[in-house]
Design a protein that fits this description.
- This is PqqD family peptide modification chaperone.
- It comes from Herbiconiux gentiana.
- By secondary structure, the chain is α+β, with helices and mostly antiparallel strands.
- It has 3 domains: 3-88, no CATH class; 93-264, Rossmann fold (3-Layer(aba) Sandwich); 267-364, Outer Surface Protein A, domain 3, CATH 3.90.930.
- It is 26% helix and 29% strand.
- It contains 9 helices and 21 strands.
- Strands 5, 6, 7, 8, 9, 12, 13 and 14 form an 8-stranded mixed beta sheet that branches. Strands 1-2-3-4 form a 4-stranded mixed beta sheet, covered by helices on one side.
- Helix 8 packs across helix 9 (345-358).
- The N and C termini lie far apart (67 Å).
Length: 367
């Protein structure tokens, strides 16, 4: 290898190994983009190899081909991100988010899919607060945040993109304090709106439902719903942030920190199911990845699919921890909720059971 650059991405040490076919100026340009994410010397967790095009005669696995330095720099940023997220699977709660840090190390995350303006937003906020990332917020079970000060794409006058370090754009350094997650805002951008930015507190299950699609490898954590609910409770809840222009957010945000309302109480639910044959008309729940109960409702995670049970659903789920008959479920529903006027409770239970079986929440004995 002609050169090696060691960078840090959500606490993962990634070695960028440049083949000797890669020109010195190209190495310098790529290295400049990563100057704010440089890691101290030591062993790497992940290695990425970069070579020139046409292929070098040097053998070995090469992950990036440098045909054009700027195109390669953008591709390399993507490869580093994917490698770090892959390495951290089953270790961290990882949100698709930008983030900034106050002087005391409190990190504020802004979550949203591509197109919600995360990079533009952090470009404004990080002129007043430390730049954490514009890509992925990774936090452990205690809320400790691992920064990812990756390069940002900057469009030049003729349309080409260049990877620039945060400091090269005037964004602030991290504070000299441990980083800890303090707030989460889910972004909702409304271009052209004349309204000032505003935030709305989300109920816990709504917050979890909105966050889960914007997370990486959540199902691979131990009791992932419980970990997410615990994190949300620790930071005092989640809010949506509706805004039109990123430039209007910093002045608004300055007076908003710490105002999120505490979410509802929640509890862990045994997600296990029961194997074995069932007689006709009997039901048992299928094992879930995780489950939590909030205000009488139950959120289930089956693999990467999230479902929320309400109405008589939670009662059925609880009863189906072991094999249970339709008749027993119907009797319990009547005992708990009474007989609805003009309705046959057995028909309502039968319809709910069919829906839950079709959703994969329950399994039934064959007729």
């Amino acid at each position: 290898m002609a050169a090696q650059l060691l960078v840090s991405a959500i606490g993962v040490r990634v070695a960028l190994n440049f083949d000797d076919s890669v020109s010195g100026p190209t190495v310098q340009e790529i290295s400049y983009g990563w100057v704010d994410a440089a890691a101290h010397a030591g062993p790497a967790d992940v290695s990425i190899y970069i070579r020139a095009n046409p292929p070098s005669s040097v053998p070995g696995p090469f992950d990036v081909v440098v045909a054009d330095a700027r195109e390669a720099a953008a591709l390399l940023t993507s490869r580093v991100t994917l490698a770090a997220i892959e390495f951290r699977r089953s270790q961290l709660l990882m949100f698709h988010a930008c983030g900034v840090a106050a002087e005391d190390g409190q990190v504020h995350a802004f979550v949203g899919p591509s197109g919600t303006g995360k990079t533009t937003l952090v470009g404004h906020l990080a002129r007043y607060l430390g730049y954490v990332t514009d890509e992925t917020i990774g936090t452990d079970a205690n809320g400790r945040v691992l920064p990812y000060r990756k390069p940002l794409s900057r469009i030049l006058g003729f349309g080409a993109k260049i990877q620039t370090p945060p400091s090269g754009l005037g964004l602030l350094e991290l504070p000299d304090a441990p980083l800890s997650l303090s707030s989460i805002h889910i972004l909702k951008r409304v271009p052209g709106s004349s309204e000032s930015p505003f935030a709305v507190d989300l109920p816990l299950l709504d917050a979890m439902t909105a966050l889960i699609p914007e997370m990486s490898y959540l199902p691979e954590l131990d009791r992932p719903l419980c970990q997410l609910a615990e994190l949300i409770t620790r930071i005092g809840g989640v809010r949506t942030l509706t805004y039109a222009e990123a430039s209007s957010v910093p002045s608004w945000f300055e007076g908003q920190v710490g105002e999120a309302a505490a979410p509802e109480d929640w509890g862990a639910v045994d997600p296990s199911g029961e194997d074995g044959p069932l007689p006709p008309g009997w039901y048992c729940r299928t094992a879930a990845t995780d489950a939590v109960r909030v205000d009488g409702r139950i959120m289930l995670l089956h693999g990467s699919t999230v479902r929320v049970l309400d109405g008589i659903g939670p009662l059925i789920w609880d009863m189906a921890a072991s094999a249970v008959s339709t008749e027993a479920i119907s009797l319990s529903v009547v005992e708990t909720y009474g007989v609805p006027m003009g309705l046959d409770p057995r028909a309502a239970v039968a319809a709910a059971l069919v829906e839950l079986v079709e959703a994969g929440v329950l399994r039934s004995g064959r007729q």
